[in-house]
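Q: Hi! First time doing this. I have a protein sequence and I read that you can turn it into a structure. Is that right? Here it is:
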Amino acid sequence: MQSRISSRRALCAAVLFLFALIPALAETVPGRYIVELSTEPTPAFLSTQRARLRTEQRGMRTRLEARNARVVESVETVANALIVDIADADAAKLATIPGVKRVLPVRKLKLLMDRAVVLHHIPEAWARLEDGRAGAGVKIAIIDTGIEAGHPALQNPTLVAPDSYPRANNDAGLAFTTNKVIVARSYVSLLPSRDSDTSPRDRIGHGTALAMITAGVRAAAPLATMSGIAPAAWLGNYKVFGSPGQNDGTTDDAVLKAIDDAVADGMDIINLSLGNDLAERLEYDPLVAAVERATRAGVIVIAAAGNNGGDLNTLSSPATAPSAIAVGASTNDRTFAASATVEGLGDFVAVVGSGTTAATPITAPLVSAAASDGNGLACGQFPPASLANRVVLIMRGTCTFETKILNAQRAGALAALVYAAADAPDPFVMGMGSATLPAEMIGNRQGAYVKENLDGGRECIVTLRFALGAVPVQGNDPASFSAAGPSVDLGLKPDLVAAGQNIYTATQTVDSRGAMYSADGYVLVDGTSFSAPITAGAAALIKGARPGLTIDQYRSLLINTATSTDTTDGYHRDTQLTGAGLLNVDAALQSTVAAMPSSVSFGASGINPNLQRALTLTNLGTAEETYFLSTAPHNPDLPAPMLDETTVTLAPGASRQLAVSFQGTNLTPGPYQGFLNVAAASTGATIRVPYWYAATANEPARIVILDRTASGRANAVLRNAIYFRVIDSSGVAITAVPPEVSVVTGDGVIRQLNKYDSDVPGLYSIHVVLGAAPGVNTFRIQAGAATRDVTITGN
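A: Yes, that's right. Below is the predicted 3D structure, encoded as structure tokens:
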């Protein structure tokens, strides 16, 4: 979940004028605020000091009500805060009350919307555990759209709810608990609109999908048999999204309260597949503060990196929290689609045409249309019966699909296989008009490969399948939508990646209006939303099998055992895109060494760095071990960090702190990145600690669009129509080179350029006026040599 959310700078008596700026920058909830109190919450409040905090909040309630505020909820575990309703014009007065630390407007947030277990070496990890016991004894909180507790994939009759469970906000909520879903709480009453269903029931499907991925049991779905990562784990349902069309988004007061309750309920792991593309500086972000306190209380927090990828510096909040395990998305190694299988050449994803399809697969010799017409376009008629009992390969272009397919049909073809054009390489549904010949489309690269073989004289047999089925695709690549770092504090994020594309999982069957509704209870989905629960399930598996470790040690086991995402030709992925690499659960289960921190960021500064960081290694094994340390830079010709020791011997349970330094003179501006490798002498097993440094020179390289308004009424004034930042070649936000904005096409007008860097690093926005006539308005942003055009359509 992510949204256009605001800079939400804290209010205090000395800076009340800031209050007027907040609505201009952010999408916030009118009349709703988080009032943070001055006493700092700590894990100790979970026991002895909770009564003192509650007394403080009772006194503050009276003072807030005297200033026309209505207290609607309180938070006392991961924050010391009261959530209030008050007129926007009166809210600034609350900051003057003694004991109030700051007043924050409530932001809106939105959703970040099988084979994956093989990709992450989960079956190997299962084989090392007692059958069916992965995640046993671990409690996982799903803070999301709710969970369909009765779903067949969430039934485990062997589980028994632990003492003091099930739990709910009220007796009605208990009806949504089972021996597996042991908590069912709803926070829908905190959302801006009145909702017809405030129960913990899932009406979207997103939360049920996460629950299945994290801890679902083996289930036979229509397209595949699947299992969650930790099927023996318990689930907590913390619903913060409402009903379709009523509360499709959520707010950070609801999420804050859900995190607070999850920690108080004793959850071991929290999954947050939600966020905000306009990630604030850490000190201003209440969800980041809540995540940090939850971690200090002993909870592992997993957060989706975000779906605003395609550029560096696109990470969402609260994945920016230093203690959260931020997870990006990689491609799965299979999808479900129609397909074309060419013997000896491969299986290809296909899209079925709009006309007649075959109920059963069609298998026949494949011939190229070029053999008859010379160009392969099939725009002219073929000789009668020349394609009899064959499937014909046709290139897109020049004439309509209807013409192509009719020509093939008249020549006696059994079916047609069309491939996309080079300038539009992805397959799509062909409009076939009156043609009734079964036909599919495949991608340009795949079709050109097949045609090359046919032109070379190869005889090929093809099988066209028109029903959905499993089709192999390229796995282990970063998904195009996956958000990247650096984080707002110039930390290295995401921490790792997991499959987040072509994920087949469970969903809700209650509300057909829900975005992920499916009558059969299963759906194919994409998003970092689904990478996060794979990692949360892995965390449950590891914690259940290896209890008693610290949060930092669990983090390292998951992050630093990740496998390389380098391409087969040796290309190194940016560490700010994939972190330590692809989740490897079996390696995490077996590793005997942990690193803290799990990544080393030297930050960003000039071209003459002289920096040092500390790295602590801990032997988690049962025997003394010697570790060999080395540095593996992405570019061996560039400076790399230096370690003060390259061989370390540790007794079981022992730790050693090492110095890691990075120095350079007159460095070329750009990123310096790679891995610090730690190899065990006895086994050769190696963990990898990613490192990163940015040598900066205030040279703009890219304009990153964080959010934009796609369309509006002609002649309308659109405030904050475009949110963007300027970054250098390392992804670091630049404000020293002021951007310029202009109108390229249409008669729109630039109303105002706004700078919000003090709240959200490098953030700018543009107020525009659309042209008086309907049509496309193109606005150009330029900083130095970097330019970016953004179109907004006037209706």
